[in-house]
Design brief:
34% of the residues lie in helices and 17% in strands. It contains 10 helices and 14 strands. It has helices at 29-46, 53-60, 64-76, 145-163, 202-210, 219-230, 322-329, 333-357, 375-390, 408-427; strands at 80-82, 101-103, 109-116, 119-126, 131-138, 170-177, 180-181, 188-190, 214-218, 258-263, 267-273, 276-277, 361-366, 398-401. The strands form 4 sheets. Strands 5-4-3-6-9 form a 5-stranded mixed β-sheet. The radius of gyration is 24 Å and the shape is globular.
Amino acid sequence: MALPDTETVWPLSGAARQAAPSAPAVVAVADLRATNAAAVLAVVRSADPHPRLSELARATSLSRPTVEAIAEELADRGLIEVASAPSARGQRSPGRPARRFRFRPHAGFVVGVDVRPRSVTACLADLDGEPVAVRRRTVRADLTGPARARAVTATVQDAMAQAGAGPERVWAATVGTPGLVDRANARVRQADNLRSWADTDIAGILRDLLHCPVAVENDANLAALGEQWRGVGRAPVAGEAPAESPEPPAAGTMVDEMVFVLLGERLGAGVITGGRLLRGHHGAAGEIGFIRFPGPSGAGGSTVPHGSGGPPDAPGLEPLPETVVVAAAAGEPDAVAAVESYGRRLAEGVAPVLLALDPALVVIGTGQFPTPETAPAADLLLAAARRHARTLLVDPPHWQLSSLGDDGVLTGAVRFALSSVEVVLRTRPTSLVARTRN
């Protein structure tokens, strides 16, 4: 199948503009049928147990013949199928059992890609957002843009081959990348740590391979979406916030106001406000790596070892040395003090951002604590940042470590791509053109 052209291809980009109010338009028969098909499909996807025709008619207020015709068309498109009849041991019922319908999440797929200096990871996910195949390859940090693009296409092809899915079954794709991305999610504007990457049209290259809409997006932005969708941004928020702070979000809800801090070889942030990405006028919102953080002894007096803070006048925060992380996790006093100072510096540097945005949640995503043995050091950093932030902010947010870890960017890329497919499934699913079905 293939996605039709849509006005808003990337509804999660934060760059979509509200359409100007207009006079009511005449609804054509084809538009009405598409709307009815979307309503039927929505019930099929959400109902538990799988609905019968009579239940679909009742839920949509459509006639049974209309629902039956729509169900047949959706089945022809490969979007739904007749579900297996539930077991009825010891029961005898006259006549043929009523058909029940279920959604086919493998009717199509989306692709998410996580591009890093030393690796490329691709995930093929179904229409429920569940990973079907994930492939990763290591690359040299000094690759040119064209060579890195070839690694991306090869990794995507590996994932499709693993799942036995051809390009015609991929409906949308998103590439997560370091650097600045234009507001249209079409090109990388700047990527200082990836050689000639900004001169490479990775969206166009991947579109030529997959023949579907392809977006590029900043990695921290995607990690924020991933955490909001399937990480700590959706779970009940726990923390040590003051009693007067707002109640944490209820279980299962997504946090509408959140800042994700990507803390590692480079520093960046993904900002979600009003439930959507905040991208800014130039698409550069969240580039906190340009902030000049307080010096090594400027946040509480503890000295950070050489190599973790960089030159005093340099922006950003360099990663903690691995030896310091390991020693802090083991409880060595000087290393503990260094990690806690690092946490305080982080909180002080981002405090103006938090004052301006007033988020409910700050999520720290970092690869600096890669093993269970180094987890105590991560807790030290988080606790220090949380405590220091309370002294700087009017309404301190909750602070949590990422629950997705290394999969945050990839999860967000899948979510971003899937959002464009959802627009079509919710509005005009029968406009999907059938090609190949398994």
